[in-house]
Design a protein that fits this description.
The complex is a heterodimer of chains A (302) and B (415). Chain A has 14 helices and no strands. By secondary structure, chain A is mainly α. Chain A is flat. Chain A starts with 6 loop residues before the first helix and ends with a helix. Chain B folds into two domains: 161 residues, 3-Layer(aba) Sandwich (D-Maltodextrin-Binding Protein, domain 2), CATH 3.40.190; 215 residues, D-Maltodextrin-Binding Protein, domain 2 (3-Layer(aba) Sandwich), CATH 3.40.190. Chain B has 18 helices and 14 strands. Chain B has a six-stranded mixed beta sheet with strand order 2-1-3-12-6-13, with helices on both faces. A four-stranded mixed beta sheet of chain B has the order 8-9-7-10. Chain B has a two-stranded antiparallel ribbon with strand order 4-5. The longest helix of chain B has 24 residues. Chain B is globular and about 90 Å long. The chains are: A mainly alpha (302), B alpha/beta (415).
């Protein structure tokens, strides 16, 4: 069979066209939108230069959202990653029911974000939710033992309604889901760990911690990079949980950039302003995404 | 032969189509009724319309109120947009008609002599620059809803003055009840408190001027409003963590007899089970400064046609039906709303509705509601400010300064 020089191109044509329409064009359109005052429905809009960005950098909600995104990154990069790695290491040995446990831990990942958000909103419900009801009975028990606690106080904890708790409550729900994802990535990575090296280490008398620290973990480095980058990207694009659970409230204490952008675009119809938020979020994300792509390409070439 | 037959059939079909054009085909209707009672009526109305015009197929889609408010702009610029939509009277309607997204239905108003049966106030809220774009169907009153059985148990009297109201809060709080429930997750319920406090403290005229951008949030008057709000908080009036609940969840506390009061629209009864409704009554938000005129909130809901509706004739038929006395009376009998048409049988109103009607008729000024009287993107900043104040009253100075800055930007953009 002869190779026609145009053959690959003709196969690529359709996907490229779709990509151009759905990805490349919107990206540049958003970029230009960020310099206008378009309201989302008027046929025309004015060029306003950097006004949207000036307003953005003076907007308290922007800085609150950004700092919440950063908190999200900080928590996400430590807790679910560590837990996921621990679970992967534990389940990689032949423990009983390992298959069941793997599925159980991975299952939240299969659920849609909206489902998780609703589920956790019920768990967090101040009066009827799982957490406060449990606390209520626990406090009641402690009180019956003579401790000075008021069971009714448990009903007053507003996990999603208290501005100091709302953000952390959402991040906790997100982490619950993310652990399973990290676990699966590490489980896959552990399959590629060279067992001969582990055997050699054992023969040399290395402790389990040393084996992990100096043999297993370094070999997991490519997976770790992927996990970290995915985690950061997940944190930056966090939206669904926030939108469904609190809509960024109370008064923006749990807002994140993506939700702020959505609300400005579709609730307040400041499309231009929302586009400016999108551009800033894009610039923040692009660095991490570049690392991710670089790693993926590198791995594929190997 | 066959060709002739085909042609004849085709001609016949075309003729039939042309003849039935006005009363056949499709009608796309989008509404925001989600609570049980209005939802059932909404479906019933569509059913009745289809029985009357069996050849029109109504594609009815119902959405949650909050989601509808966001989706409507996308609906209106879609091609084709839905034909008929539910919406809010006044400024919120004018926003769309000024952008050319709503159909001019002045002919419909004149053909049906609606100016004879809709009072001048209802006419005004349906017009934009002298033309009609809206059919105002029904409205409701806002008031302080309370549980009569709790009041009876504690021997409390309905408060007419602010001090009496605060005393009731203290008594209820001491008895272990939540004096006032509030679900402010989406902000607007807190805005109800702002509307009333501001109208009672500074008068409805100041309130509307503020919402029109002619007065400042960062002023002594508004600070005084918040000082009264603070008094209510100090008296232990409010439920803890109001921002944790949406309005229905907060109403649940009243249904379960844990909370005694809720500042809410008449639609609160939509979510109260029938066997509990007997315990629900309402009173006028207490008077704070007796020298001021009395303002009340009474938002009006209705219908309009999208400017680019694909089935304009059917849409007008439907609107004609929606604006008819028959449908208006159903809103009274089935859901207990007040209706804008003045020719309905007054005997249809129950005692409660008569009381609500009287509440509004004895008011000196009737406002729509915070987010219907002020530009929408400012309203969402206002909501944040009110919710934040309730959680963090110490930050009032910053909150008001921020809100005023937003107000100046929004009103400058509008010019």
């Amino acid at each position: 069979m002869r190779h026609h020089p145009l053959a690959p191109l003709s196969f690529l044509l359709l996907p490229l066209a779709l990509y151009a329409v759905w990805v490349i064009y919107p990206t540049f359109a958003t970029l230009t939108l960020a310099f206008t005052n378009w309201d989302g429905i008027s046929p025309t809009s004015e060029w306003v230069g950097l006004a949207n960005f000036e307003r953005l950098f003076a907007d308290r909600i922007f800085w609150m959202s950004l700092s919440n995104n950063l908190r999200w990154v900080a928590v996400f990069i430590t807790i679910p990653t560590a837990l996921g790695l621990t679970l992967a290491l534990a389940l990689n040995r032949n423990v009983r029911f390992d298959r069941f446990l793997k599925i159980a831990y991975y299952l939240p990942m299969v659920l849609a974000f909206v489902v998780i958000a609703l589920l956790w909103a019920w768990i967090y419900h101040p009066r009827q939710g799982l957490i406060n009801s449990t606390l209520f009975h626990l406090y009641g028990f402690l009180q019956s033992l003579g401790f000075d606690v008021n069971p009714l106080a448990a009903r007053r904890i507003g996990w999603l309604g208290d501005p100091n708790l709302a953000m952390w409550s959402i991040i906790a729900a997100a982490s619950w889901q993310h652990v399973g994802y990290v676990m699966i990535l590490y489980l896959a990575g552990l399959k590629t760990v060279n067992t001969e090296l582990l055997d050699a280490g054992q023969v040399d008398g290395a402790s389990p911690w040393q084996l992990f620290r100096y043999v297993t973990f370094p070999q997991l480095a490519p997976v770790t990079t992927i996990v970290l980058v995915i985690t950061v990207i997940q944190s930056l694009r966090a939206f669904d949980l926030v939108y469904v659970m609190t809509r960024g409230g109370p008064f923006n204490s749990s807002n994140v950039l993506a939700n702020f952008m959505y609300i400005e675009a579709f609730l307040n119809y400041n499309m231009g302003y929302a586009a400016a938020i999108a551009v800033v979020l894009f610039l923040i994300s692009i660095g991490f995404i570049a690392v991710y792509l670089y790693r993926v390409v590198q791995q594929e070439e190997r | 032969m066959r060709r002739i037959l085909t042609q004849a059939l085709a001609t016949l079909l075309l003729a039939l189509l042309a003849w039935g054009a006005a009363q056949s085909g499709v009608l796309r209707y989008h509404s925001y009724t989600m609570d049980p009672a209005p939802r059932a009526l909404d479906e019933k109305i569509v059913q009745m319309f289809m029985e009357r015009y069996p050849d029109i197929r109504v594609e009815h889609s119902q959405m949650d109120h909050e989601d509808f408010k966001q989706a409507i702009r996308t609906f209106l610029v879609a091609s084709p947009p839905p034909d008929v939509l539910t919406w809010f009277a006044g400024e919120r309607m004018r926003f769309f008609s000024r952008l050319g997204l709503a159909a001019d239905i002045t002919d419909l108003w004149l053909d049906n002599d609606w100016e004879d049966v809709y009072p001048p106030g209802a006419q005004a809220m349906s017009k934009t620059d002298g033309r009609y774009y809206f059919v105002p169907a029904h409205y409701y009153w806002w008031a302080v809803y309370y549980r009569t059985d709790i009041y009876d148990e504690l021997g409390l009297e309905v408060a007419e003055t602010w001090d009496a109201f605060l005393d009731n809060c203290r008594a209820l709080d001491a008895a272990g009840y939540i004096p006032v429930t509030l679900g402010s997750r989406f902000g607007w319920t807190a805005a109800g408190w702002f509307d009333y406090l501001n109208m009672r403290v500074n008068g409805p005229e100041f309130h509307i001027r503020l919402l029109d951008g002619l007065e400042s949030y960062d002023s002594e008057e508004v600070r005084n409003t918040f000082a009264h709000w603070q008094q209510a908080m100090d008296a232990g009036c409010f439920i803890d963590n109001p921002a944790a609940y949406n309005w229905q969840e907060a109403a649940e506390f009243m249904v379960q007899r844990e909370a005694a009061m809720y500042l809410m629209g008449q639609f609160i009864l939509d979510v109260v089970p029938e066997d509990q409704q007997a315990y629900f009554d309402f009173f006028r938000f207490p008077i704070i400064d007796p020298s001021l005129p009395i303002g009340e909130d009474a938002p009006t809901d209705g219908y309009f046609i999208a400017a680019n509706a694909a089935n304009m004739e059917n849409a007008k038929l439907f609107l004609e039906f929606l604006g008819s006395r028959e449908v208006a009376e159903l809103w009274i009998t089935d859901v207990g709303r007040l209706v804008t048409r003045s020719d309905v049988d007054p005997a249809l109103y129950t005692e409660t509705e008569q009381k609500g009607l009287q509440l509004l008729q004895s008011a000196d000024y009737v406002a729509q509601f915070y987010d219907r009287d002020t530009p929408e993107d400012l309203a969402s900043r206002g909501y944040d400010a009110f919710v934040e104040f309730m959680a963090n009253p110490g930050a009032l100075d910053r909150i008001l300064a921020d809100l005023q800055r937003e107000a100046e930007r929004v009103f400058a953009d509008l010019e």
